[in-house]
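Can anyone check this?
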Amino acid sequence: MSQESFHNYIVPGLDVLISDPSFLTPGKNTRRKADTLYIPSFYVYRLLDFYNEQTNRGESARELIMIFGEIFERMNHSDSKTCVLENGMRLEFRDFPENPVFRGFSKGDVEKHNSSKFHAIAIAKVLQDELGKDNVAIMTGSDQLATPAAFNNIDIARVNPDVYTGRTRVKFPDDLASLWWSGHAIPKDVWDDVFPNQPLIVNQYIELMFSESGQVDSGFQNIGRFDGETIVPLRTTRINNPAFSKIRPKTPGQAMLFDALLAPVEELPIVVVSGTFGTGKTFCTVATGLAQVMNGNYEQIFVCPRDGALGREIGFLKGDKLDKILPQAAPIIDNLGSVLRLVDMKPKKLPGEAGREVPIKTLVEDYQKRYFEFEPVIFMGGRSIENSFMIYDEFQDMERGQARALLSRIGNNSKIVILGDPNQTTNPHLNKTSNGLSYTASKLAGDSLAAVISFDKTREIVRSAAAKHIAERLAH
């Protein structure tokens, strides 16, 4: 069935609730997933099995138990079996059917498969009998539940949560183009009249397309940012250091990223960057960070890459702390080399060896020692990082608790940049929407101190023609 289909009644899989407990605490304006959610009562007991785990699943279990407790209390006070959530969606708990044998299950099935998945399927079949087959679906992102549900002729409402991208691209009416090209400002009320169903979010970036106006994308002048009242031009896409004059944005996404990375730290201290390989997100971050450190805006570039053990002990690895973490910081180091190849900083000659250029490897090592500090996740507890351009790489492998802890390390006059690709999550407890990168992007959407930028999956790859070809062929 289509992901856009709407069912009146949905039984969410336990995987949906664990990956996003806020599913049960929607805001007033959150789009309803269904008219009524039916939660198998068995989920409460299953969550207790995960409650003490020091994992993302354990954290979600503890949060869900608290949410369920609040829901039960509301039900008891109202003497009702149904709870109405803020967005109008109804929630009801359902027990396992008393006579599962008559619902198409044998006693052996019950004894062998008494799991959260089995309860979801059994309750969905009961609801089909009560409410009609076409009105009932199981919502899940797990094939382990979707496949047996389909086998039992139950519709699947695939999980397709909206992950905030931080940008939008619209065709703006040409008769209003002069608003932008003459005054470079579009008031919110004008936008609301033209796009009433597309509300703007603070610090959201907008590509304005004026197909009939004759205006072209010259220096990304058709890109704006919503400041809360007006769509305004990008603050800057040029690095304020002559040595970095060759480094400029090549795509709209890079232009938005330059704008956020180069914004004053007191105005925009948090930048969340999501994008597939080859879009230049790490290169742009390293280049703008290095330039600002050399300009005196920050004292250092502080790098906290995902370590191989996902934030757990690394003492068994050989060497000192830097030796242990540098392999995971390779993307940062590689991009530092790429930046230094383009930066014009004289002299680049080896002392005492006239005419011989300094090898790029030597330059990288020198700049790494002078301007960078590397710290593994495991050592970040209790730290306060001040006067630094902070880079957290591979953030898609961070769990929600880790994400909150790492973000809280930001100190005075520091900018924190979070990088990652939600489609390359290697943590087995996470998926592309429940990981720390997507979680942070969603939670910071519309925050006046944060910018969220997502790169187009294939349109904005700049690494090479081969890389773009691979991305297009492997997109699905």
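Reply from J.R.: I decoded it. Residues 308-316 have pLDDT under 50 and may be disordered.
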